[in-house]
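Two entries, shown back to back:
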Amino acid sequence: MRYFPGKKKKAVTFSYDDGILQDKRFVEILNKYKLKATFNLNYGLLGGGQWEDRGHIIRRIDNHVVNDLYGGHEIACHSLTHPSLVELDEDRLDKELGLDRKGLEDLTGRVIKGMAYPFGTYNDLVIKNMKKNGIVYGRTVEDTRNFGLPVDFYRWHPTCHHNDKNIFSIIDDFLNKDSDDLDLLYIWGHSYEFDLDDNWDHFEKIAEALSGHDSVWYATNMAIYDYMNQID
């Protein structure tokens, strides 16, 4: 019989994109409830980019705060400049993926091997180039609304977005499920969405509902990847 660390049968992970100022408040909530997340960053856009959405200015974080802000959490790739990767040839993919990984590793001193797909787009050429550049998994935006482990880590489909209309029913089903299977609840999004939707309390409720369960392993994406490849 397989287990997660600590002989736990359930795991929870989060994945959030773009490296923006709202991540500071988001990380504070994660840390308050002892949850773990993966943050997917565009190295080429740190420290300068911003855009407007529904009257809100969304600003990217500065390079010098990356290590402190994401201490205790995973940093992963999100491409150098956030294009739709399926529109790129192999040379451009090399730059978008290779330079993003190298830049983030040089900046943080960490080994970085994970990724979330910009705009959720990917194909066989993108995955081939990820392998070439030492990236071992890619998170999609294709919600499963179930708790299955990925069959293919390059097509790692999350359970749901944090704004899923059934999020609290999904959490209840996850916590109450009793089976011999390993179950993974994987929530994704962008922290600026809590400003756009004025619902930071929504995430606080999610965090509170998921925290403090002895049966749950709280892990980053990479920790789950590493562990599953160790026991399989």
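entry 2 starts here
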Amino acid sequence: MKRETLTIVGIGYVGLPLACLCGEKGYRTFGISKDKKKVALINQGVSPIKGDARLQQWVSQKSFTAVTGFESVKSSDIVIICVPTPIDEHYNPDLEPVESACKMIAKYMKRGQLIIMESTVNPGVCEEVIIPILEKGSGLTAGKDFYLAHCPERINPGDAYWNVRNIPRCVGGLNKKSLSWAVRFYRSIISGTIRPMKSLKEAEATKIIENSFRDINIAFVNELAKSFEVLGIDLLDVIEGSKTKPFAFMAHYPSCGVGGHCIPVDPYYLIERARKSGFDHKFLKLAREINNSMPRYAVDRLMKALNEIKKPIKGTSIGVLGLAYKADVDDLRESPAVEIVSILKEEGAKVEIFDPYFPKRSTAPSLEEMLRKVDAVILATDHREFKEMNLLNFKKAQIKVVVDGKNCLDSITIAKMGILYRGIGK
């Protein structure tokens, strides 16, 4: 079977593994990045994303070509957009990366191409933003001269099982040909189920709903963590008990905050789009408010514990374990750890940092050396190195308070050492 030529715009956490997969499956694949250093590394077989051994092995196979320009769009049958869709400092959606990518693609488009949007957007963006840009820049008509589909990305960095090869996907198309072509393409590269959706808007809505669902449930347990602290109840034990119900319960866990490019971002896209249409998403906004409050809550837990030993936070050396938003990845996007560091500095603490995935941002070369500098610690990222550490290191370093922002340490062992332990919900 003839394999088409593909161009993937954006080769970061989403586009890079997708480009590797497409190349592996026999497609002539190009991946575009403005970062010349990243392009050079990839073409040398080196992954710019550190800490992911499987991805490094994949990139080393050099199954696709990384480029800095958009010329490959001319010869491509399919163009896939995998650029970021962030929010600004006021939590407003920022579609500039998408708009810029579409403007550049339009300059090189030809008749008969399929454009696929993988970046997460709110319902309506494909028809209200992307199509007008592509039509204006190319002089072509969507649905007639070129085809458009949306397949919202699903990726879980660090997951040993679910990955770009096997995660089921949903696909929506502008018309029947757009949909059938996109479905056929994804079925040719992915072993998971590919579900056709009835429209572009419904496909756009799936990703927003998935991550809003998680955000709401995490907000629920985070609020319970605050409530159960007052009530003297161990929320973690309650959740384990609730999990014994074999139906109608899905466990979510509290922590010092929600990070990553999806859960703390996607709800704002729906909130803002619905607002423009006259609907106020009160529930989603409240969930975001609760989850955004958790870094402050973690610091408050630390301050109360320090007060118990007659020690102010101002002038006290505090160690932050981890900067990444999740375990064992080198990803800072929307990381609550970054906010925790900021709050600690605002409170006048002397902040020390150690993250094995961010040596340049760490203030000490090792965990042990950092512990020797501080009086208390906040664990903000549950890296394997922290979960498997010898807890006696806390005692040897004369640590007085441990705030476990991920509830991943042995609280009983720490308490037996005479160290004040505080978790989130326990």
